[in-house]
Structure formats: C-alpha cells, structure tokens
Automatic annotation (TrEMBL):
It comes from Candidatus Staskawiczbacteria bacterium RIFCSPHIGHO2_01_FULL_34_27. InterPro entries: Homing_endonucl. This is Homing endonuclease LAGLIDADG domain-containing protein.
Amino acid sequence: MRGWRNGRRIWSGNMTYIVGLLATDGNLSGDGRHINFTSKDIQLIKTFRKCLGIKNKIGLKSSGFSEKKYFRIQFSDVILYRWFLEIGLTPAKTHTIGELKIPNQYFFDFIRGHFDGDGSCYSYWDKRWHSSFMFYIHFVSANEKHVVWLRQKIDELSKIKGHIDTIKRNGVYQLRYAKKDSKVLISKMYHQKNLPHLRRKHKKLEKIISTENKENNRKTTNI
C-alpha cells in the first residue's frame, strides 16, 4: 500500500481524493478491516484502485432499489481502516459522517473526490435575464452536519458562499454553488493537470465553461 512511512499515513493529494470518494460512495465494513467502494463508472473504480496501488478484482453489485448493477471493489487493510476512522470516516456513515480531519493543503483534492462521488452540475439558459447562461455545482449528503461543515470549510479556504437546500423526496441535504462561485470552485478542484478525476463529469464541466466563455466573448463584442 502506498503512502506509509514508519507505520504512519502520509497525506497526499491522491489519498485525500480517495477520502472524498469514500465519504460519498464508499463504505467501511463493520468487521474492522474491509473497505468498499461502489460506482456506476468503471473508470472511477479503476482510478480508485490505481490511487491506492491495489490490484483487487472489480465486481458487480445490485443497487438494492432496482435490478441495475454497479461496479464494486473491496479490499482488506486493518491499518488503513483504522486511519480512516481516525480522520472521521465511520461504518454506516450515512447517519454519522460529520467533520473530517482534512489538511487545508489537500482540501480541494477531497472536494474533487466528493464531487466525483455524489456531486453534480447542470446548466441552462435563463430567458428572464436576456438569455443569460447559468450553471451550478451541487454536493449532497444525508447528514446535515457534514454539509454544513463542507460549506464552512469551502468558505474559509476560498471565500465563496454556498446555499444549503433540503431535498424532501429523498431526505438529503444539497450544497449548491451558483455560476460565479462555481468557477472559483472548479479552478481549485482541478488545480493542476493530470489529477485523478472522473472524466465524464470533468468533460461536462469543460463544456459548461466553454459555453460560458463564448457567451462572455459575445457580450464583449456587442458592447
């Protein structure tokens, strides 16, 4: 396993990205040793495996709500499991996750993992404002304390403001950033080239930013 020195975990951008993935789509088994990660994206599962330097087999798992299958990887590592507990990840994290002990230096690597796990983005043309192009980035969690901590930490490190909504139909909390703040967040999440990321979501963000830049150029030309 990569990233250990004298029996202690060494923080890195890649490991912090893994923590973000586990905080959303991962699971610590109740046996005190097994770590699981599930995703509908095989590329994300392979990225997870590469970041950890493991070669465990990738399997399929039922969602529990439908017949749809998801990709899943499981591995056993007692020391790493205990380290995850120390920083705030827990079994049955849906109802227990709150603040995590993430170094500021790597916080936006964690946010990128969180976004690749359960985050989303969308855009649209708002005709109320002369066909203004709008877009948002969302983060979700079933635990309010975790979402509040995310907003406070992002505000502290980037000076942007997010808004928390409750999605009543599925009982989750949503942290939402509008266009101006989303652009700041995107630049921090992808702060250099060749970082581990979910290509599908990154391409969608690139398309959104490209449309935004074209719209800004059009407005400048028409002045």
